[in-house]
Design a protein that fits this description.
This protein is α+β, with helices and mostly antiparallel strands. Helix content is 31%, strand content 30%. Strand 16, helix 11 and strand 17 (424-433) form a beta-alpha-beta unit. The longest helix has 29 residues, at 196-224. Belongs to the polyribonucleotide nucleotidyltransferase family. Mg(2+) binds at residues 488, 494. GO terms for molecular function: 3'-5'-RNA exonuclease activity; magnesium ion binding; polyribonucleotide nucleotidyltransferase activity; RNA binding.
Length: 698
């Protein structure tokens, strides 16, 4: 039986159909917002997956080009690997949903969202977030949802709830907030220096909308939701914990954990594991031995959380507001266009910036119905050696793509315009060492590398992460400034905020609990502001206080100019003859956009100026009295033809070559001579007419 449910959401109808399609999935919803339509499904494996110590949740956001009436690009004309946008959407759905599943469940769960139609007024990513929650909520899969997501845009100072694609792309803020019925559970933002208090207000405007959507989903679940099925728990039996505590006492565990060196702590935990496995109770019991790895992890976690929550004692001895030791330097990599390294404790990022002509910008084909270009690209690499492990690199995974996108958003607000700085910009963050919050170190390193490369940033940007450990009540919590890896693994939150002195440029919040109170959100945002001010005013300012005035001598030089749209054809010439001639003569690279913006790129400033002058001459409407320099390209009995720009010629009549009477043009001129001429206007045949005798020859 098909059931249809609707609600008004920000002035548009959200429609959900259950039982129409996908009946063999554990949960399936056909969701429509405006004309944007997605099929959202949730399925669960019947038995736990063997050999895993985590909950295997897989989120898929599948972009179909038929949804916008287009063929996919590429030779095969078939959707290929997920786009960067699809991967980032997967992560945005995963982050609020994952904490609501049982932590001790090991059954594979897959949530798939297939985009089938796109209405530019209703972003499909938002529909996927809501549809995923509906599909799991109505299924028999164990889950403590539902949750809901709302997006907030800011256009001309006006807050827009669930903005259109155009409003989303061109506004001053991109904010996504997910909530349960009680609390905020996920925040992601990119913004143009939004003040902290304004951002908090926008977050809770979105939270209020989310509560309405959660109520709507709950009404669906109440009517047709399936009973949640039991699962096999992978939790460590209490008797094993009790046995381990007789081998390694809580006091001993605390001493082993208390160090600021990650490698020492890891070695201590390896020794603890060996000691436990050597005990006869474990050595002679394979079932118990199988739980040791997870049990040691849980024992370490409980120890760290107790130290922080009850004693305000961090594993590395810092105060709860204290940042790890910082250092920063620039220009450590020779010959690149810009480089910087930022170190915070045992987290170290080296960022390298490359500048290129605008034609090198990344072309992005997505479901917004437009092929767009990314002029600024930030990429992040996380090799295994950075955490002391060995693993073959297979290219960036979802985590690397997500961290790269976060650092990219962090700096977008302060980049110069194309008119101010006509370059494509690529920043690559290489992780040399990692012990927590490499994405925020990447932001700091990228900012310094861009300034070192001569990119005129409007303001410096820094980032920091705030952690959380909670107790039994909402009021029992401790916020931790600059969390290291252990505090991230064992804590409840990773709240990353980047910004300038003026305001926030990006947020990404991950949590492992069922939501945050407003006091925690406000406290974390305030804590991050204080910390990033400290970083910007300290080591970053000492390393480089402002952007360099010029780009590196190894970077290409680029000058810009504009030509009238009706003159573009003159510059390009028939089949590109004119522009190719300019390129051949000067060795520069020239790009012209459809609106007449010209970018000239090369290494020799004189050649750049020469190319620019050639273009200027080509687009000039010729008037009597203008002076030009040119080359003799043809000699006739009646005069000579002078090329004064590629594809542009004028004639000097024999009577206008010299003040003395000439019998033959060759008496004065030969092919290839460089001459200076003055424009006399056009002759009766429409040709440009020049005179040599009326201008002094150098």
């Amino acid at each position: 039986m098909v059931k249809t449910y609707t609600m008004d959401l920000a002035g548009r109808t959200l429609k959900v159909e259950i039982g129409k399609v996908g009946k063999q999935a554990n949960g399936c919803a056909f969701v429509q917002y405006g004309d944007t339509t997605l099929l959202c499904t949730a399925t669960e494996a019947k038995a736990p997956r063997d050999g895993v110590d985590f909950f295997p949740l897989n989120i898929e956001y599948s972009e179909k080009f038929y949804s916008i009436g287009k063929f996919p690009g590429g030779f095969n004309k078939r959707e290929a690997k997920p786009s960067e946008n699809a991967i980032l959407t997967d992560r945005m759905i995963d982050r609020p949903m994952r904490p609501l599943f049982p932590k001790d469940m090991r059954n594979d769960v897959t949530v798939e969202n297939m985009v089938m139609a796109v209405d530019p007024a209703c972003r499909p990513e938002l529909v996927a977030m809501i549809g995923s929650s509906i599909a799991v909520a109505i299924s028999d899969i164990p889950w403590d949802g539902p949750c809901a997501s709302t997006q907030i845009g800011l256009v001309d100072g006006q807050m827009i709830i669930n903005p259109s694609q155009e409003q989303w792309d061109n506004g001053d803020m991109k904010l996504t907030v997910a909530s349960t019925a009680e609390k905020v559970i996920m925040i992601e933002a990119g913004a143009k220096e939004i003040p902290e208090q304004d951002m908090i207000r926008y977050i809770y405007e979105a939270d209020a909308i989310n509560k309405q959507v959660v109520n709507f989903i709950n009404s669906i679940v109440a009517e047709i939701g399936k009973e949640k099925q039991p699962y096999v728990s992978a939790a460590v039996p209490q008797e094993i914990f009790d046995a381990i505590k007789t081998i390694v006492t809580p006091e001993e565990m605390e001493n082993l954990v208390f160090t600021d060196d990650k490698m020492v702590r890891d070695k201590n935990m390896d020794d603890v594991t060996e000691k436990i496995l050597a005990d006869p109770r474990f050595a002679e019991n394979e079932e118990w031995a199988a739980f040791v790895g997870d049990a040691v992890y849980q024992y370490e976690k409980k120890t760290v959380r107790k130290m922080i929550l009850k004693d305000h004692k961090r594993p590395d001895g810092r105060e709860i507001t204290q940042i790890r030791p910082l250092s920063a330097e620039i220009d450590l990599i020779p010959r690149v266009h810009g480089s910087a390294m930022f170190t915070r404790g045992q987290t170290q990022i080296c960022d390298i910036v490359t500048l290129a002509p605008l034609s090198e910008a990344q072309r992005v084909e997505g479901l917004d119905q437009f092929v767009t270009e990314k002029r600024y690209i930030h990429q992040y690499n996380f090799p295994a050696y950075s955490v002391g492990e060995t693993k073959v690199s297979r290219g960036p995974g979802r985590r690397e793509i997500g961290h790269g996108a976060l650092a990219e958003r962090a700096l977008l607000a302060v980049l110069p315009s194309v008119e101010e700085f006509p370059y494509a910009i690529r920043a690559v963050s290489e992780t040399f060492e990692s012990n927590g919050s490499t994405s925020m170190a990447s932001t700091c390193a990228s900012c310094m590398a861009l300034m070192a490369a001569g990119v005129p940033l409007k303001a410096p940007v820094a980032g920091i992460s705030c952690g959380l450990v909670t107790g039994d009540t909402d009021d029992d919590f401790v916020l931790l400034t600059d969390i290291q890896g252990l505090e991230d693994f064992f804590g409840d939150m990773d709240f990353k905020v980047t910004g300038t002195h003026k305001g926030i440029t990006a947020i990404q919040m991950d949590i492992k609990i069922h939501g945050l109170t407003r006091a925690i959100v406000e406290g974390a945002i305030g804590r991050c502001k204080d910390a990033r001010e400290f970083i910007m005013n300290g080591v970053m300012h000492d390393a480089i206080a402002e952007p360099r005035k010029e780009v590196s001598k190894y970077a290409p030089k680029i000058i810009s100019m504009e030509v009238p749209v009706d003159k573009i054809g003159d510059v390009v010439g028939q089949r590109g003859k004119t522009i190719n001639e300019i390129i051949a003569r000067t060795g520069v690279k020239i790009d012209i956009t459809d609106d007449g913006k010209v970018s000239i790129c090369g290494e020799d400033q004189a050649k750049l100026d020469e190319a620019k002058e050639m273009i200027r001459i080509i687009i000039t409407d010729f008037e009597k009295g203008q002076i030009f320099k040119g080359k003799v390209v043809s000699i006739k009995e009646f005069g000579a033809f002078i090329e004064f720009a590629p594809g542009k010629e004028g004639m000097v009549h024999i009577s206008k070559i010299s003040k003395e009477r000439l019998d033959h043009v060759e008496d004065i001129l030969t092919l290839g001579d460089e001459v200076t001429v003055v424009c006399l206007g056009k002759d009766r045949m429409g040709r440009i007419s020049f005179s040599m005798k009326d201008v002094a020859q150098n």
